[in-house]
Amino acid sequence: MPSTRSTLGWRRGARFAALGFSFAVAASGAVAEPAETADWPHPGGDAGGARFSPLTDIHRGNVGSLEVAWTYRHGDAHVPENPAKVAGTAFEATPLMIDGKLIVSTPYNRVIALDAETGAELWVFDPGVDRGVRYTNGYLNRGVESWRDPSATGFCASRLFVATIDSRLVALDLESGRVCPGFGKGGSVDLHVGIEPLIRPEHHKMTSPPVAVGDVVVVGSSLADNRRVQPSGDVRGFDARTGRLRWRFHVIPQQGEFGVETWEDGSWRSGAGANAWAPLSADPERGLVFIPTSTASPDFYGGARLGDNLFADSLVVLRADTGERVWHFQTVHHDLWDYDNASQPLLVTLERDGRKTDVAAQLTKTGFVFVFDRETGEPFFPIEERAVPKSDVPGERASPTQPFPSRPPPLSPVHALTRDDLWAPTPGHLEACAQKLAGLRNEGIFTPPSEAGSILYPATAGGANWPGGAVDLRNGILYVPVSNIAMVASVPPLPDALRRPAFRRWLPSQRRAAKAAAASVEPSGGATFQANGQFCVKPPWGMLVAVDLSRGEILWRAATSRTPDGVGGAAGFGPALVTAGGLVFHAGTSLPELRAHDADSGEVVASIDLPASLNAGPISYRVRPGGKQYLVVTPGGHHIFARYQGAQMGDYVIAYTLPD
Length: 660
Hints:
Layout: E1 52-53, E2 67-73, E3 96-98, E4 101-105, E5 111-115, E6 121-125, E7 145-148, E8 158-163, E9 168-173, E10 188-190, E11 204-205, E12 211-213, E13 216-219, E14 222-223, E15 235-239, E16 245-249, E17 281-283, E18 288-292, E19 314-319, E20 325-330, E21 346-352, E22 355-363, E23 369-373, E24 383-387, E25 401-405, H1 427-438, E26 454-456, E27 470-472, E28 477-483, E29 487-490, H2 496-499, H3 511-518, E30 525-528, E31 530-531, E32 534-535, E33 542-548, E34 553-559, E35 577-579, E36 583-586, E37 593-598, E38 604-609, E39 619-621, E40 630-633, H4 639-645, E41 652-657
Parallel strand pairs: 1-35
Antiparallel strand pairs: 2-41, 3-4, 4-5, 5-6, 7-8, 8-9, 9-10, 11-14, 12-13, 13-15, 15-16, 17-18, 18-19, 19-20, 21-22, 22-23, 24-25, 26-29, 27-28, 28-33, 29-30, 31-32, 33-34, 35-36, 36-37, 37-38, 39-40, 40-41
């Protein structure tokens, strides 16, 4: 029997008509000659998440001349007085531009259509989410998905799908913003139905947009991690016309299913996590959906879930019409570090030795980039299983090996920290960090958490995180915002009750016990590696990294941000945009500014001051032949950064263009 760690089960898929840019990016990533217009129909630009614009009006020579064309304020920005009771907001939505309409979703999940050239409000849809709930990480929505029904015309033939934070999938008519009454019940599907055990509704929510492939719309979910009783994180496909459930993929295999043996001692029964909270990707031509999954819970202790734990921390490829698994690859076995696959898989065509290959690239928090043949799952570059450190926590058994891609090199450092890696703003700070380091386990990447504390480097924020990357579809050059910080992961001595698996499915008579178990504290934790309130690892703490995917080589690294005192800041949680004008646009969270980097060198050629930090991806489009190229950003900040780091909050949609 082949290993469950390998990519397997591949077969050629049915062909679907591609729905992409109006300038015709095929599902394979091949780019035709640009037309005079360019839409942005998916949050990642195309269905494969490339975040690439073919427009060239804005380029290195004139980007410094950009002017504000219009500004819109949506009003949904809030920092709560008591964050322990009510969540604040985070504006993380990358807009769409379709048929002259700019579509943006707000932190409270309202969907707004604006005239893409003037910013005039066309319509507003309010799903009416309860604004008094304490959602983990706050109220947010990272964008909506578009879909056209090739068999219909008129009302709801062109649809928008929004997955709300309170777990509803809503279908809207693109032209009017009204719900499509034939979809689900009155225009929406309750995504809590069939999810168990669901102790509190806010434990299962939606933050990333769905993805539409053929006539199926696919959703993952975001779970309240590390609770003793968690709802299932299964991926589901719904009929795009009716909202009927078409299929369900168990991210934690059930009895008799492939991979169930990777959950030892029957721990699949109590398994939790492994959900797909990051954005999904699609290959419409092949009818495939690409799903990045997260860590099994709890994050830092796996004694009650021994084994590799499929399909946690995996890239899983399913047939969109049936949910059948085509192939998979697990990027971390038996995760003890919260190394979720947090970013959208990137679909692009690469050329090597005169041969073109359609690939899927999965960026990871470890800083590794795994590249696969999109259809077969075969690695584009060899992947090696290497020995890694053992755990010394009683009851734990770390995986003896982890996968390391031979190329590209890691985007962020993965070595054991030395004194030379420590930040020395003052001699006292250096010594404090050195003393702290000496008392911790520190054996490089995949050092297991320990009772004394272990260096977690890269940290749980990455490497790469949910912003993912942007890839130039003409040449396969990838641009990735990367974090460079360390954490300390520790596991306190655990009582025997927390080392044993809990029953996952609860009978009605056990509800009270389940609620008590759900309130159990996480049996492990992590904190930033710092001393005297300052990081211990040398800056820059955030980088923008350029990678030649075809050759597997890093081309350049550039600091992505700075703090007011001039020290390199963190990478921030905002995606990048690459354009055919030779520019990469990106913003961090330390200062509210958008930077335009030269795509060839990484040099910052222009910067734009913003009214708030940018946690969403810039987009670029042209509405009509002869019209202007627009660059649109949605600065709004995040309530956590605003409360503890003083970052600005806002509710802005801003369009820039070149002067007449």
